[in-house]
C-alpha cells in the first residue's frame, strides 16, 4: 500500500519564519551555502518552498538572516519541550569539517575574545534563553534553568567539535542523546530537583 506524503506543518507567520531560520541554520552549518537548496531547507522546516521566497525573498537573503540573527536558536521558540534534548543533540553532532562550513556556534565562540562579539553573544543568550525560553518553563528559577541549558549547548559543542575531547568526540549520537536527556530533562521540569531541602 502506497503511503501518502507527510503533511506540511501548520505555522502562523512568525512560526513559519522561525522554522525556516532554524532549518536553514542547521543546513548551512552542515553543508555550506552552495550545497544547500531552498527545497531542502523548506522540507526540513515542514513548509512549502515558496514560503522561503515569501518571507526572505531569496536563498541569499535567508543566509544573511541566519548569519546576522539567532537563527540557530530559533527552534527553541516553538519546539515542544520534550523535543529539546533531541534538538540539542542534533546541533552538537552536526559536525561539519572546517573546509565545508564552520559550526555556527563555534564561529560565535571563537570570536568571543572581541568585546563587541562578547556583547552580541550575551544579548543573544539573554534574548533567546534568559528571556524567551525561560518564559516557557514553569516552576522556580526558570531563568537560571534556561541559561544552564545554554551552557550545556555551548559547552558540549566546544568540547566535542573544537577541542575534540576523546570521549565526547567518539560517542555515538544515540548514546550522547541518552546522557543529554538525563541532564537536560530535569531542567525542563517544573519540579526541577536542583533545589535542596534547605531551599524549601
Structure, described:
The protein is an all-alpha fold. The protein folds into two domains: 11-64, Arc Repressor Mutant, subunit A; 68-191, Tetracycline Repressor, domain 2, CATH 1.10.357. Helix content is 60%, strand content 0%. The chain contains ten helices and no strands. It has helices spanning 13-31, 38-45, 50-55, 59-67, 84-92, 104-110, 115-132, 142-163, 166-170, 173-188. Helix 1 (13-31) packs across helix 4 and helix 7 packs across helix 8. It starts with 12 loop residues before the first helix and ends in a 12-residue tail after the last helix. The model is unreliable at 1-8 and 96-101 (pLDDT under 50).
Shape category: globular
Number of helices: 10
CATH class of the largest domain: Mainly Alpha
Helix content: 55-70%
Report the strand count: 0
How many domains make up the coordinates?
2
Distance between the termini: 58 Å
CATH structural fold name of the largest domain: Tetracycline Repressor, domain 2
Largest beta sheet, briefly?
A: none
Q: What value does the Rg take, in angstroms?
A: 18 Å
Could you report the average pLDDT, rounded to the nearest whole number? 77
Do you know the CATH architecture of the largest domain? Orthogonal Bundle
Q: What's the helix-strand series?
A: HHHHHHHHHH
Kindly estimate the percentage of residues that lie in beta strands according to DSSP: under 5%
Low-confidence stretches: 1-8, 96-101
Derived from helix and strand composition plus strand pairing, the structural class reads mainly alpha
DNA-binding region: 37-56
InterPro entries: Homeodomain-like_sf (IPR009057), HTH-type_TetR-like_transc_reg (IPR050109), HTH_TetR (IPR001647), Tet_transcr_reg_TetR-rel_C_sf (IPR036271), TetR_C_16 (IPR041678)
Protein name: TetR family transcriptional regulator
GO molecular function: DNA-binding transcription factor activity; transcription cis-regulatory region binding
Amino acid at each position: 500500500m502506497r503511503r501518502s506524503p507527510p503533511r506540511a506543518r501548520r505555522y502562523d507567520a512568525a512560526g513559519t519564519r522561525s522554522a525556516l531560520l532554524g532549518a536553514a541554520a542547521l543546513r548551512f552549518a552542515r553543508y555550506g551555502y552552495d550545497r544547500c537548496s531552498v527545497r531542502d531547507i523548506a522540507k526540513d522546516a515542514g513548509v512549502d518552498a515558496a514560503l522561503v521566497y515569501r518571507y526572505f525573498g531569496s536563498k541569499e537573503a535567508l543566509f544573511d538572516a541566519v548569519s546576522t540573527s539567532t537563527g540557530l536558536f530559533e527552534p527553541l521558540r516553538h519546539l515542544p519541550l520534550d523535543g529539546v534534548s533531541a534538538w540539542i543533540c542534533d546541533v552538537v553532532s552536526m559536525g561539519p569539517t572546517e573546509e565545508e562550513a564552520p559550526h555556527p556556534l563555534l564561529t560565535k565562540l571563537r570570536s568571543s575574545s572581541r568585546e563587541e562579539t562578547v556583547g552580541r553573544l550575551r544579548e543573544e543568550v539573554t534574548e533567546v534563553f534568559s528571556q524567551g525560553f525561560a518564559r516557557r518553563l514553569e516552576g522556580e528559577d526558570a531563568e537560571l534553568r534556561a541559561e544552564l541549558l545554554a551552557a550545556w549547548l555551548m559547552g558540549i559543542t566546544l568540547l566535542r567539535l573544537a577541542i575534540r575531547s576523546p570521549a565526547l568526540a567518539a560517542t555515538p549520537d544515540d548514546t550522547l542523546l541518552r546522557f543529554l536527556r538525563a541532564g537536560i530533562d530535569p531542567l525542563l521540569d517544573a519540579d526541577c530537583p536542583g533545589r535542596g531541602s534547605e531551599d524549601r
